[in-house]
Design goal:
Elements lengths: L18 H17 L3 E2 L5 E3 H8 L4 H6 L1 E4 L5 E4 L4 H10 L9 E10 L11 E10 L4 H18 L5 E7 L3 H17 L6 H9 L10 H7 L11 H17 L4 E2 L11 E9 L7 E7 L3 H4 L7 E7 H10 L13 E5 L2 H17 L5 E3 L6 H10 L4 E5 L1 H6 L1 E6 L7 E4 L3 H8 L4
Parallel strand pairs: 1-5, 7-8, 12-13, 12-14
Antiparallel strand pairs: 2-4, 3-4, 5-6, 6-11, 7-9, 9-10, 10-11, 14-15, 15-16
Helix pairs in contact: 1-5, 5-9
The structure holds adenosine-5'-triphosphate and magnesium ion.
Adenosine-5'-triphosphate binds next to strand 6, strand 10, strand 11 and helix 11.
Length: 429
């Protein structure tokens, strides 16, 4: 196939053999969020470029080098969303649904776009489930977000493979004081910093903390610590969060170098990390952003949220072999009919059964075919049972009921009794 007709590098098709696992994952998360009282919101995939510059911050990796930005036919600069928080804040402001201190607990799902170097667990179109809470400023809600994800890892069977890293960035005042101290210290060691960190020192000094460069890391050993600069309010908030995690029994490690890539965080930041996926180890990340809504032109509105990467979590389910058995079988019953008269009767019978058993996964053979070829298709479909309609069955108004996975002998079931019989044999999801 010519290159121009292939998918764009880093943008993947999710093939039919993979979608059951995706739907299982997405369904599990959606049900959990419903149960905790969160409501779904859906935003456009394209926004004005200015939105992301303003919210994410001009001197972040995303805005500096990862956005898919283009001019539309009106000459407006638009960008494929690299993350969901900015658009979510825009939406709540535009519709006034956080006004007057209204609490909103929202979640969204969908593709995000970043021009990064594609590799395992890192793509240019990837998918997130994200969540944002507005107008709750206490540590109780920070804790709830973490507790929910902890429950999710439990339900998915991957709890032992993830670790919670936690830090507090303080209020903007305390972070400002810390930034000053850090800049002063790092400036005194300017020559020992790598080039990227020298640049960040001027533009976004906190980001120097998460450098991968060994020399810079050595300099950081004696650098001032954020924890020493937290004001009383930030400290109390952080203690409140830790007390709640302790109460529920969720283990965590404090990581003073956790600063997150985006500018807008304050107080709590956290990441769920795993060592099962190689370098792309963060599966879920988030934190509090009390200043963001105001920065985007709204009234001061506390906010907190997180986003998880669906590709990475699906990879984890595969790597840890936590794929529930029932999702691999997509057909319960396969109906084979031989001859035109049987085919017509089979269609009508199938619809009657579907009326009574709406959750039954019943596949009707299409494309006719011999005895042998239809049975082959029935078997290949993964169905537990084949239903057979041939001349004999038509004459007696019955259907042959044939177990395909060795659960007993073939029997004849009267058409009228078929739905009731299936209801006893097939566990319906
Ligand atoms: P990373 O450090 O891995 O680049 P990030 O800090 O840029 O992640 P966030 O913006 O916090 O990521 O996004 C939340 C989650 O989305 C990440 O923890 C990760 O699971 C997922 N994610 C981010 N970028 C990608 C990508 N390019 N491909 C696949 N998943 C991604
Ligand atoms: Mg990134």
């Amino acid at each position: 196939m010519s290159k121009s007709l292939q998918a764009i590098r880093g943008m993947n098709d999710i093939l039919p053999e993979q979608t059951p696992l995706w739907r299982y994952f997405e369904g599990t998360v959606a049900r959990l969020l419903d149960n905790y009282g969160y409501k779904q919101i859906r935003m456009p995939i394209v926004e004005f470029t200015e939105l992301f510059k303003r919210s994410i911050g001009e001197v972040t990796d995303i805005v500096e080098k990862e956005m898919y930005t283009f001019e539309d036919r009106n000459g407006d600069s638009l960008t494929l969303r690299p993350e969901g928080t900015a658009a979510c804040v825009r939406a709540v402001l535009e519709h006034g649904i956080t006004g007057g201190g209204q609490v909103q607990k929202l979640w969204y799902i969908g593709p995000m776009f970043r021009h990064e170097r594609p590799q395992k667990g890192r793509y240019r179109q990837f998918h997130q489930i994200g969540l944002e809470v507005f107008n709750l400023d206490g540590p109780d809600i920070d804790a709830e977000l973490i507790i929910m994800t902890w429950r999710l890892w439990g339900e998915l069977g991957i709890r032992d493979a993830v670790k919670l890293e936690l830090n507090s960035l303080g209020t903007s005042e305390s972070r400002g004081r810390y930034r000053e101290a850090l800049v002063e210290y790092l400036s005194a060691h300017h020559d020992k910093l790598d080039e990227d960190s020298q640049r960040r020192l001027k533009t976004n000094p906190l980001r120097v903390l998460d450098t991968k460069n060994a020399d810079t890391q050595a300099v950081l050993v004696d650098a001032p610590k954020m924890a020493d600069y937290l004001d009383d309010e930030s400290r109390a908030h952080f203690e409140g969060l830790k007390a709640r995690l302790d109460a529920v029994g969720i283990p965590y490690v404090l990581n003073p170098k956790l600063v997150r890539g985006l500018d807008y965080y304050s107080k709590t930041v956290f990441e769920w990390v795993t060592d099962k996926l190689g370098a792309q180890g963060t599966v879920c990340a988030g934190g509090r952003y009390d200043g963001l809504v105001e920065q985007m032109g709204g009234k001061p509105t506390p906010g907190v949220g997180f986003a998880m990467g669906i590709e990475r979590l699906v990879l984890m389910l595969e790597t840890l072999e936590q794929i529930p058995q029932e999702i691999s079988r997509q057909v319960d019953v396969y109906l084979c009919a031989f001859g035109e008269e049987a085919e017509l009767a089979g269609l009508a019978l199938a619809e009657r059964v579907r009326d009574e058993l709406p959750n039954l996964r019943l596949q009707v053979n299409a494309g006719a075919g011999s005895f042998k070829s239809q049975f082959k298709k029935a078997d290949k479909s993964g169905a537990l049972y084949a239903l057979i309609l041939g001349d004999d069955e038509m004459a007696q108004q019955v259907v042959g009921f044939k177990p395909l996975r060795g659960q007993g002998e073939q029997q004849s079931i009267a058409w009228d009794a078929l739905a009731a019989h299936l209801a006893t044999c097939v566990v319906q999801g």
